Prior knowledge:
alpha/beta; 12 helices; 423 residues; single chain; 10-stranded mixed sheet
Amino acid sequence: xxxxxxxxxxxxxxxxxxxxxxxxxxxxxxxxxxxxxxxxxxxxxxxxxxxxxxxxxxxxxxxxxxxxxxxxxxxxxxxxxxxxxxxxxxxxxxxxxxxxxxxxxxxxxxxxxxxxxxxxxxxxxxxxxxxxxxxxxxxxxxxxxxxxxxxxxxxxxxxxxxxxxxxxxxxxxxxxxxxxxxxxxxxxxxxxxxxxxxxxxxxxxxxxxxxxxxxxxxxxxxxxxxxxxxxxxxxxxxxxxxxxxxxxxxxxxxxxxxxxxxxxxxxxxxxxxxxxxxxxxxxxxxxxxxxxxxxxxxxxxxxxxxxxxxxxxxxxxxxxxxxxxxxxxxxxxxxxxxxxxxxxxxxxxxxxxxxxxxxxxxxxxxxxxxxxxxxxxxxxxxxxxxxxxxxxxxxxxxxxxxxxxxxxxxxxxxxxxxxxxxx
Length: 423
């Protein structure tokens, strides 16, 4: 049995949580493979909204096992709050929620370092969520990090204290004023650690290997989006992990030849949170209307998302580096009422037209070249079949499929899990 992947193809916020929730009935195991609580996966069903940050999006399904993989970084404080929010559902978290011993922990001082680093950059800040993600991955690659498995060791607090002392010395380097009460932060942290230790820790690579041998169906869930990948994203305005398909192998311990379908999710338009280049960004009424109708605010930060037309050059790039086999288009309903739609099909790059995603897409280098489409007026939110979708939308989808050479198998026409059309 192969492991299927589900990941975002833009700058995150594509709607991965909803689709994982929709697909979970087809899988025995949902495994999150990278990122941290900077992720915000929103699920809406039975008239209620749920936002998950670290816990996989299949947690509400009775028969699914949810695994937090080794590639994830965990903030125990935020994790505890997520668990508290699930308390009313009477879920058997001891058996339904498994955590890799090799996942790294975000310490209170990681968050302080994140804030100090971002503050020191001034106008050049990268738009960090200030969750301590970057400093935690830096300690991971610097071989200083504390992992979930360390909590089972008698001397883990000695390791913790040594790392905290190093962090406090590093804070002095930034020469910025960061107000904090470390004792208060640590009180909350150690309380959350006690809760975390009540869950089940596993050697996740062995667990998944056995699951594959026993023909268990597995869906690997990514966070953020491909254009935020540490290697292939719009560096340095990226996250600190591998958000592409390769990240599932390193973030779960799954061999490349065990990967099956690669589901790529994208919005019918484009959004971005925080700083960084965005060729198709709109500053006019169309952009404002997208943001208003789409309720474009970060699920984790609450920050307004920048909105723009669909960038097919960037989308095709993401499809290629991930080996996407099926596409899923989100928020098609948001574009209802636009008289004309546009999609970027090439760039004017330093005076030359190109159709590939170049090293640098800063606005002084890149100007989008658009193809226009006729819009539609129909309200899509009550539609349940692709045969009932407006011709103009089907034409738009067909153009996308032909451009990126991958079929669109799902069209989302609203935030609820029921507002999902299979093609």
